[in-house]
Write a structure and sequence with these properties.
Mean pLDDT: 92
Distance between the termini: 28 Å
Strand content: 15-25%
Radius of gyration: 15 Å
Oligomer: single chain
Number of helices: 7
Number of strands: 6
Largest sheet: 6 strands, mixed
Length: 193
């Protein structure tokens, strides 16, 4: 079983992110379970969304305490919360950030990628909602699912102009991390230290 924990603020699309990611896994024949967790239901309040995926039906319904993967939609959460709590030794994290401005200590086997997902979203969508750019980066960083499956899930979730805008954001996030992984020098720039 693989477990993904998403850290965001209410209104940043974390529930949509989990739903799209879960549906992409479903399209590949996996059994996903996506669900949110939040306290005060107000814009800007810290919240989590989770995705569990396995080759057989997922029966576990608790929060995710030891994620394989982290998606952090708002890097300011790193200042007040331990987003890396329980993060597996060989885990991969994708953080929506332009630069490393306070990534906590992490283990040498963990990979932490920085991608300016909000900048990509502003360019492609016109709003700073970087969730689909983060999902594209997730696909490139983890090789867990195919980009085509993610694009199909986006087509299922959005309609009209939003489909093409979000697909464009997804592709840009994907390409950014792919370029990072192709070149060691480029990867040094993308990985948090």
């Amino acid at each position: 079983m693989k477990e993904i924990r998403i850290h965001a603020r209410a209104g940043q699309g974390a529930i949509t992110t989990a739903s799209i990611l879960g549906f992409a896994y479903f399209l590949e024949g996996k059994f996903p379970y996506a669900f949110p967790n939040f306290g005060a239901a107000r814009m800007g309040a810290p919240m989590n969304a989770f995705v569990r995926v396995d080759d057989k039906p997922v029966r576990l319904r608790s929060q995710i305490y030891e994620p394989d993967y982290l998606l952090i939609s708002d890097a300011t959460l790193l200042r007040g919360f331990n987003c890396f709590k329980g993060f597996k030794d060989n885990g991969v994290a994708i953080i929506n950030a332009r630069h490393d401005f306070g990534i906590p200590e992490h283990k040498s086997g963990q990979k932490i990628y920085l991608v300016a997902a909000n900048d990509i979203a502003m360019e492609t969508i016109g709003r700073p909602l970087g969730n689909t750019a983060l999902l594209g980066a997730y696909v490139a960083a983890t090789d867990e699912i195919k980009l085509d499956s993610l694009i199909q899930a986006i087509k299922h979730r959005f309609s009209g102009k939003a489909v093409e805008q979000n697909i464009s954001a997804t592709q840009k996030g994907y390409e950014y991390i792919k370029q990072c992984r192709l070149s060691k020098q480029s990867e040094e720039k993308c990985l948090a230290r």
